[in-house]
Amino acid sequence: MYPEPKDPSILHLQADHRSSMVWEVGGGDNQRPRHRDPNNVKFPPLHPRMVPILQALRFDGVSRLSHIQIDWSLITALIERWRSETHSFQLPFGECTISLQDVRILLGLGIDGPAIFGFTSFEGGCDDYIQHVLGVKPGKEGMVGGRVKCTCLNKIFPSLPDDSSDLQLQRYTQSYLLQLIGGVLFTDHSGDQVHCMYIPLIKDFQSCAKLSWGSAVLAFLYRELCKPCRKDIEENVGCIILLQLWAWSRLPTLTPIPRGPSLNNEIIWGDLAGPHGLRNGYDASSGDTLSIVAYPFDTSWGEAYQMIR
User: Fold this and answer.
1) N or C: less crowded end of the chain, CB within 10 Å?
2) pTM (2 decimals)?
3) pLDDT (tens digit, 9 = 90+) per residue, 88-99?
4) Is residue 280 part of a domain?
């Protein structure tokens, strides 16, 4: 079998692509997804008063999906098949990729509205701006350059009292949103830190609700997938949960056997409908080795690809 593309004029980066390791040394180890692990660092507890705000911002779906465990083997197998030349996955039956429709249906994020942009520096410094928005200055121990530590946010806002004021509710929700943004939607190699450039975007909830968060998440993931598909990269970042839910929904042979209780918190969310991705919101999955996960990719045919219903 010829291990490289028959026509190198399009897939011209094969020499540096991670898939070449399969032919050279039999494959590599699992990559490490940079994603907020709910078992190690807990998200701030939700309060029922936050639900209407999260719904208005269209962040309720991401909030309900944030506790799904990431399958390292599945993510690695997907990255081995991602081509930065075409921004698509190369599978036995052809090419496929994640679309804005997938983002809207799987995560529930908005995909219309103004594009997201902002600033990376602030007059007076990031800590002063954080104090202006959240009411508390994190201090030097809570900052790393232009980033604020999520552990610092947890200490400042550990929980929301039942008798909290509207201002306390707003600031607690803003702290929670920052951790969703830095820990799920726009993860990077910094670990438990979130860049201060996102703070102006959540300062005003009415403006925040109008932004096209879904398109920004997808564009960021596209860019970041083009990095770990190279041989020399060991970590992957971006909205990894979107990548995993897309594979589970579009390629049902990869969907895990449900194990453990559902992650849907009925005390908080009641009977409110969740995003499509919540169908696989269980405490554990069945995929655990790269060879087992990769096998369905290499044996699947076109009829295995599913439209989301």
Assistant:
1) N
2) 0.85
3) 898 888 889 999
4) yes
